[in-house]
Amino acid sequence: MGLEKIALYKKKLNMTTEELSTRSGVPIGTLNKILSGATKDPKLETLKSISKVLGLSLNDFDDNDFESHTLAAHFDGNEYTEDELNEIRQFAEFVKNRRKS
User: Fold this and answer.
1) Which residue did the predictor score with more confidence, 25 or 75?
2) What pLDDT does residue 25 have?
3) Whole-prediction pTM
4) In the predicted model, is pLDDT for residue 41 greater than 50?
5) What's the CA gap between 9 and 60, in Å, rounded?
6) How many Å from the N-terminal Cα to the C-terminal Cα in the chain?
7) Which listed CATH number (2.115.10.20, 3.40.50.880, 1.10.260.40, 1.20.1250.20) goes with 4-100?
C-alpha cells in the first residue's frame, strides 16, 4: 500500500515517531504498528492525519497508478463541494488499493 513512505518521509523531515505522533494526534502505538508492518490497513482518518503532517496526499500512499475516473456524487439532491469530491475520490482510490493488497 505504500505505507513505507511514512518512514521515508519521516526520515527526510528528521522527525521522530514521537514527534509525528504529537503533531498528527495519532497514538504512538498505532504509528509503531503501521511502521513495523503489523497494521497493513490503517483507518482513513489515521492516514489523513499522518499525511497532513508529512506534506503528503493520500494518493502518495498508492503504489499503483490509477486512471482518474469521473465521480458524480449526490446525497438527498445536494451536490458535494469540490473538496468533498476530492476526498471521495481519494477514498475510492484507497479502497481500490486495499483490494489489490
Assistant:
1) 25
2) 97
3) 0.61
4) yes
5) 11
6) 7
7) 1.10.260.40
